[in-house]
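Before our next group meeting I need something from you. Please put the record directly below this note.
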Amino acid sequence: MTDAIDEYFEVALELVKTAGNLIIEFRNGCKEFTSKSSDIDLVTEIDKKVEDTLIKGLSAKYPEHKFIGEESVADGAKCVLTDEPTWIIDPIDGTLNFIHGYPSSCISLGLVINKESVAGIIYNPIVNQLFTAKKGKGAFLNGNKIHVSQVKEVRNALVSFEAGTSRDAERQRIVLENFKLIVTKAQGARTLGSAALNMAMVALGGSDIYFEFGIHAWDIAAGDIIVREAGGVCIDPAGGPFDVLSRRVLCASSNELAQEFSKMIHQYYPERD
């Protein structure tokens, strides 16, 4: 299986780099977009073109593989995860950033087999950041091995989080309560506007914790394997096992840190994918 994953990964990597050229063309912003679930949940034609490039390219090479893509699901496709090799795709994670010309958006592509992430690619072509990982092979940024930080306590941690793309009043209340908690209990707070890049920063050791409620499988599938291969952990924010379809994630530099943080935060349970 390792040889097969290596082959799948190399094919996917070339497609991701090709698709990245579509994003680079709009490095100064993309002014044509439409709304999906809310006025801050947006999509562009470039999102759709990137996803189409990846699905068509991978399907041509591996017709038996399955796909879960953000824009395909938005258009009515079912979000079903089996034990078959499944590519989970966010064509542009950080679409709002992309629209505004804020250089913090990326392609996120994860390969899941037997419901476990076994390979991941997070690519921000605008600033040329390519995060990659394969099961048992470590995590890398532009070919250089990366590792999570050595921070073990919340009081010393830089915590990443997001306000998200929902206007739900209860969810917004929880976000604000947790923000106040971070400001008073942690060393600092950061928000990049991209779940995948937030996870990549934990893998890099730039931040120590990232958590969010309401994200989707395509936001976190690639980040899961990249964080774990960098020596970190991904769990449910309440302290249990990570579930890529739960729409909940907490990743950290160590299980010790993740568990301490999970006991502090206010919880929110969105509807599953």
